[in-house]
Amino acid sequence: MKLKKIVICIILLCIxxxxxxxxxxxxxxxxxxxLGIIMAxxxxxxxxxxxxxxxxxxxxxxxxxxxxxxxxxxEVHYIHETIIDGSNAANxxxxxxxxxxxxxxxxxxxxxxxxxxxxxxxxxxxxxPQLTWYSGGGIxxxxxxxxxxxxxxxxxxxxxVGNYDGISGGGLLCFRGNPKISNNIITSxxxxxxxxxxxxxxxxxxxxxxxxxxxxxTSYGGGGFYTxxxxxxxxxxxxxxxxxxxxxxxxxxxRLYSSIVTARNNIIWGNTQxxxxxxxxxxxxxxxxxxxxxxxxxxxxxxxxxxxxxxxYHLTASSPCVDAGNPDIVYFDPxxxxxxxxxxxxxxxxxxxxxxxxxxxxSGAWVSIDDHTSLQNSEIVLFQNYPNPFSPxxxxxxxxxxxxxxxxxxxxxxxxxxxxxTIPLSFCGIEGSVKWDGMNEYNQPVSSGVYxxxxxxxxxxxxxxxxxx
Length: 469
What we know:
The chain is mainly beta. It has three helices and 41 strands. The strands form seven sheets. Strands 2-3-6-9-14-18-22-26-30-34 form a ten-stranded parallel β-sheet.
């Protein structure tokens, strides 16, 4: 049986004055995303309705959450339906689809979009002011450290339209910052080098991404990744699937130039290049518990066909990458609550880390275990909380038919998408209610602001059976 889950989300205004953040709706409040950003203040959320927005947006130093409706229930279709298309840039020198260049912090978040059509931004490295570069087709990060998560970054092309000294980062570039890049699919981008991702004298935490089918030209290499130098923070490449990228020179998967990189639990497979191997450079870097086609020295590394199940690079049950990542508990896959001791899909096997994008604590990129089917002959109503706004407590009522549904709980999230509280529910007939006192899981008060709550209902639980021969 499949697990069916109904998820109903409602915005909960949890306010103990003053309010710490506002929600700006696009296009209801403002016609364009950029105008919404201009009008926003730190801590605000810009919630963008599905549609195609032909814009080249700049965060202008705002530490805000820019998100599609993916925020509300983590439905993947919102990512595909909410498109920022940078192909109509007014200024070809600033033609990246999304720009962070004003010291944005990790609180500047881009979440839940298709980012496409960008062609890059002109920039100068202060170390080499005599040279001019053109980079970051999809996302350009210059001395900024934003959070980039749950996006499809695709079909961005950086070409040498201005006789530049280098053209790089078809998907994205970060320079002199420390961005967090997680749970994205970075695919079908092109550039002279570093067609997927460029880390240029920068730190970065790059986890649980699929980097695939990107094409680099003949300048410096790196179909999937190109790194050069380091900054004050480390470069961590963890639990990514880096496949089917191409370089016209070296390093179809990764080209590491004078960089120290920590890479673990990755799959690096099926990348091509005109010379050398899928990883070029990296003699001073650490690669451990990775599946690298053609071999690469390091503890726990293997050289075996990962046996992908589909074009999103899920693993089959017989994949040698299942349970083959770093066995330390800090890298464990999420546990399936219906099957203790075993991983929650899309991770596979036991709790030991799976190599690739679907393993580790960040497992879940692009995949929902919901089958999105509705309940037959059933009714689920989640009412607006009252009072609203409130201080210090609020009541949330609901009705559910049939009443014998199991595994029901209410989850409360902040606008960063972080869960702050899970409350098990009990029924009286078909009705129920729960009181929330504004405390998190650790019985600590949460800050004033806007919160979301959703009802999770498991109808047909998964059971395990064992065949012995």
